[in-house]
Specification:
elongated, 12 helices, 327 residues, mainly alpha, single chain
């Protein structure tokens, strides 16, 4: 199960609109921004949808206003993570601030987890019924349900108007046409309506671009910090002169347009390896020569002994009571 997901995983490239659509359809809510879920209550109910009965919904507060109340929701979420042995770290201090990027990334992880847990199927889950046990859950459910009939009623109004228009008799056709022309908006009004829709679309695109920029900057800072740690390690006096460290410095301090830096670093390491091997061969050869010389010296010393010295050595053996001597 996807408890730990890397920053370059496809889960973190899911758009904000897709995340909002998933939350609203799963929990029957009407969130317009991802950061509206910063209180942690939505996350708790998503875990309840994936693992029914695992979340104590009576402790979840959908009416959380202060940071203290939001922290209580995240405590409930953390307890659920501990029960399920989920090692995902919850950055509560960042989430409760309502920052768009932090809340989007955590919600992207939530979506990936829910998709992996049950295949994205929550057909038997009733979010309205489960929210009734929460603080502020009933009011939130009423608001979310009330917005849906209003859209249906507004959609039925033009249909009634068209039916009433068809019932007008031919005698009043000219009067009706004149009234329609009088009520019909001017071209400027129509253009303003189109520009309003375009402006909304552009604002959404700008928001997406800002989120992308924040994500790229966060990745840049992450990798820069790693490179800085490696640089500090390479400057340690104990290992600064090692060939591996020299190759790493060659890569770190290379120019942007230098494409052969990796090959040069590898060449540095191979040359150093050859030097080490040659030194080892030279040491082994010198040791063999020393051993041969020592053997020759001992043989020459034994040949130069006088007969008296040899007899004295034999007498020493007799006197020492060697078991090799027979009487």
């Amino acid at each position: 199960m996807a408890t730990n997901i890397g920053m370059m995983d496809s889960a973190y490239f899911v758009g904000r609109s897709e995340i909002l659509s998933w939350i609203n359809s799963t929990l029957r809510l009407n969130l317009s921004k991802v950061e509206e879920a910063c209180t942690g209550a939505v996350h708790c109910q998503l875990m309840d949808a994936v693992h029914p009965g695992m979340v104590p919904m009576h402790k979840v507060n959908f009416d959380a206003k202060s940071e203290y109340e939001s922290i209580q929701n995240y405590k409930v979420l953390q307890d659920v993570f501990n029960k399920l042995k989920i090692t995902k770290h919850i950055e509560v201090n960042k989430l409760i601030k309502g920052r768009p990027l932090d809340n989007l990334e955590f919600m992207q992880w939530m979506k990936r987890y829910c998709d992996c847990a049950n295949g994205g199927q929550m057909n038997s889950y009733n979010p309205l019924e489960r929210r009734e046990a929460c603080k502020g859950g009933k009011e939130l459910s009423k608001k979310s349900v009330a917005t849906q009939p209003s859209t249906k009623c507004s959609a039925s109004v033009p249909k009634q108007a068209t039916h009433n228009g068809r019932r007008t008799d031919a005698a009043h056709a000219n009067a009706a046409n004149q009234s329609i022309k009088a009520v019909r908006p001017s071209p400027g009004v129509g253009q303003s309506g189109c520009s309003e829709a375009e402006r909304t679309m552009f604002e959404q695109q700008i928001t997406e671009l800002k989120l992308s920029i924040d994500r790229v900057e966060k990745e840049r800072d992450f990798y820069f910090a790693k490179l800085r740690d490696i640089e500090i390690l390479c400057q340690t006096p104990d290992i600064e002169k090692l060939p591996v460290v020299g190759a790493m410095k060659r890569i770190l301090y290379a120019a942007e347009d230098d494409a052969s830096v990796v090959a040069e670093a590898q060449a540095m390491l191979s040359e150093q390896q050859q030097e080490v091997e040659e030194e080892g061969k030279q040491k082994s050869d010198s040791q063999k020569r020393k051993s041969i010389i020592n053997v020759d010296v001992e043989a020459a010393a034994s040949n130069t002994l006088s007969p008296r010295q040899r007899l004295s050595e034999v007498s020493d053996v007799h006197c020492s009571g060697s078991p090799l001597v027979t009487y």
